[in-house]
Amino acid sequence: MMISSWRKRIAAKRAGKEQQRNGNGEMELMIPRDFRCPISLDLKNDPVTLSSGITYDRESIEKSRKTMFPLDGEAKGYLRSVSAMHCLIWFLSSGDLSRRRNSVLALKELVSSMEDQRKTLSLLSEIEGSIEPLFKLIKNPICSTSTKASLTIIYHMITSSSTSSSTRQKQVTKLVNLGIVPLLLETLVDAERTMCEKALGVLDGIVNNEQGREMARDNALTMPVLVKKILRVSNSATEFSVSILHKLCKTEKREDGGVLVEALQVGAFQKLLLLMQLGCVEKTKERVSELLKMLNLHRNKVECVDPMDNFRDLKRPF
To answer: Which alpha helices (H) appear in 64-162, and where do they start and end?
Structure first.
């Protein structure tokens, strides 16, 4: 007993920590913070250092894949720490299917919550290699839930004012170089409602970037897919589709009309007229009015086709 107490006193002295007495009057050793696992907050029994440079207890990091959803306030507060965010991204990049799914669901809850959203997005955007595993979950999906979660996270990362414009543009550039535009368009062809809304939201954020707009303008699926989604899926999908069309058409500089002519060929003029008659929110109404004026300048160049959803003769670029 005396030897044990002596060891505790020596250890406390070396750590530069004071000893405190518990309720029974016994001496307790104060464990330095660096000795505790960021996940369990207990003493690390089997330390393991990830590529992020942060050290965890092996058992704790293995068990963290069993995270339960939805996350409560305490869990969200902890997961917004730098070490926990690095851990989630590590799982998202290197974990098995279960860990990757749990990690993306946890991240989705964090970025979707208005509480400390700015801090979450700021931390996430600063972590090197955070965008690639999210893209991978869309390209090689585990399940529809994880794909939607990934789209939601990306949407917030590239559209939220919580991060700087330069940071958002940097993320968009990475996504465009990875091939996000053709991937989103292919996903949109037969996507169900929720998936469609999320994919359109991401694409709307992507075309805020000139490189993203260029990729979209050059893809044969862009105009047919966007026109198809107007008045076909939901109000949200219609608003996103009109917004994307507006950004692409307004910045079109080719003398032959480019995407304006393509939009006319797949029935965009008729669809937009119908939308104007049926009614929409004021911002969308303004965009529709501008689009109709731009399209009208090129109507004499093409013979507009029936705006039915016909992809049979469309040659896809993949």
So the answer is: 73-79, 82-94, 97-112, 117-126, 131-139, 144-159
Closest CA to 105 of 83, 128, 75: 75
Residues 6+ apart with CB under 8 A from 48: 55, 56, 57, 58, 61
Supply angle C-alpha 225, 226, 230, rounded to 5. 115
Question: Helix, strand, or coil here: 178?
Answer: helix
Task: Report residues of the chain scoring pLDDT below 70.
Answer: 1-34, 38-41, 50-54, 60-72, 95, 303-318
- pLDDT, one tens digit per residue, over 164-197 is 888 899 999 999 999 999 999 999 999 999 999 9
Element (H, E) at 229: helix 222-229
| Residue-level pLDDT at 10 | 45
DSSP codes, 140-156: S-S-HHHHHHHHHHHHH
The residue with tokens 């044969």 is 220
Given a contact cutoff of 8 angstroms between Cβ atoms, the answer to whether 155 and 111 are in contact is no
CA distance 143 to 137: 9
Provide the token pair at 201: 């939201």
| pTM score of the predicted model | 0.75
